[in-house]
Structure formats: C-alpha cells, structure tokens
Amino acid sequence: MTQLPVRLPTPLSRLVAVAAGERLLLLGGLDGRNHTSAGVLALSPATGMADVVGGLAQPTHDAGGAVLGGKAVVIGGGVTASSDAAQALAPAGGTATVVGHLPQPRSDLAVATDGTTAYVVGGYTGSAELPDVLATADGRSFRVVVRLAETVRYPAAVVVGGTLWVLGGEHDGRPTADIQRVDLATGSARVAGRLPAPLAHAAAVVLGGSVLLVGGADGPVHERTVGRFDPATAAVTPVGALPVPLSDAAVAVLGDSAYVVGGETTGAAGAVTTVDTVERLRWG
Fold this sequence. Notes:
Layout: E1 2-3, E2 12-13, E3 16-20, E4 23-27, E5 30-31, E6 39-44, E7 49-55, E8 64-68, E9 71-75, E10 85-90, E11 93-101, E12 110-113, E13 118-121, E14 132-136, E15 143-147, E16 156-160, E17 163-167, E18 170-171, E19 174-175, E20 178-183, E21 188-194, E22 203-207, E23 210-214, E24 217-218, E25 221-222, E26 225-230, E27 235-241, E28 250-254, E29 257-261, E30 264-266, E31 272-274, E32 278-282
Parallel strand pairs: 7-11
Antiparallel strand pairs: 1-32, 2-5, 3-4, 4-6, 6-7, 8-9, 9-10, 10-11, 12-13, 13-14, 14-15, 16-17, 17-20, 18-19, 20-21, 22-23, 23-26, 24-25, 26-27, 28-29, 29-32, 30-31
C-alpha cells in the first residue's frame, strides 16, 4: 500500500469512484463539514492532479456507481432523504443528467459489475432495508434479479464469474459478519460464510485475480485491514493493512492497481474525521 503524493481538493467520504481512461472519476460524497457534494473530480495517478471536471444533476452521498454504455453512472444515494435517481455523464466530465429511476429511493447501497451489467445490492429507503438485488445495463431501466437472504445496508459487493458475493454490511442497525452468495443464473441466495468479525462500510474489488476487502467499520471502530476473500471457501484472510483505519472510502481499479480514495477515520478525541488521501494498492 502506497500513499500517493496527491490530496483531494477537499476531504471526501461516501463518494463514488469509477475508472475513466487513464483517470478516476470521483463523484459526489460528503465533505469534511458533512455537506453533500455535487462535484465531479478527475484524478490522474500519473500526474498526481485532481481537478474539477463537472457536476452531478443532484448532490448525493452513499450512492453506488459503474461505467455502463461508455458513461459513468451514479445510482441512488441521497442528501437528507434517499433518492431514486440514476445520473450519467461522459468520462471526460461535464454536467450529469438524470437518465433513470430506481423502483424506490435507495441509499447506503453497493454496486458490483461484471463489465456489462451493474447489480445494485442492499440499501435503505429512509425507513426500511431493501432485499431486492437490481440489475441494469444502462442506468435507465432496472429489473429485480433476486432477493437477498438477509437485508443489508453499507455492504461490500463483488461479482466473480456468475456469482455475486455480498460481504458484511449492517442488518437491523448492526454490523454483520455474514457473507451472502447469490447465484445470478438461478436467482438463489444464501448465507455461505462468515467474516472474521462484523464489518460494514467496507469496499471490495477484484485485483490481480483476487478479491480484496478494504477497510470498513464495526460500529464506531474503524478497520485498517486489507483482506483476501476466497470464493472457494467463502473465507477472508488478512493480507495487508491501510496506513490508518478507514471506512466509507471509494475504491476503484485502474490498470494494475486499486485506488482507495478519501474515507472516514477516527480523529482526535475519538471524533470521526473525513480524509483527503489517495492510497494505491497493488496485488499479485
């Protein structure tokens, strides 16, 4: 794990990051003053520059995102209330437009993609946790593909082959250690394993052929562990550590590296602090 010599223009957490050519697009999020952002930044790991390149149609945090049909799509999230909007913009930036709507408002979700289809996992309407996993190929229309075995908010999720793995999250207001296996071909879902400890607000990526689980929190305790998830055994083993305990970071893969952008950590006197750092993770 290497901390890059770059800082975001402002501390950010609960943002979306997607790869766009040789840059990362960073979309929305919460700043250090707990304000929801409509900003779109382009981060170049090669140059160390992070520049404002556009804006969202609606500010949002705790959303999910993917590249679909050549556009960056931000799904759900919200400000003071959960949103049903899907917003899209070109990889070069510009002003996003609302291109679609979820069946109901949904924040605190995760999005996992197989390269052509994005799966919207978990989340919260503002009053209830949602069991439906939704699929979209364009951000315009969404279909239900399966119901989770256990409703979750703030999960980590990744697609490996034809299987969607949902790692941890919050269930009924508490972090869970459950690992859910969703067969996308049959539409079946079950709890298939357990994390070493309850964990929410983490991120999962596929890098170098391995699934890595990054950071997270167990209630007020932030985690610094980078774990490797083995789909064959549904088990997670520690393989590294972040420089500081971190939750709610955006994580995206660009080339041979995963980039951990922003997030929240425990600051002075136990207060939650939003960070402006960018870490590079290489594996394999």
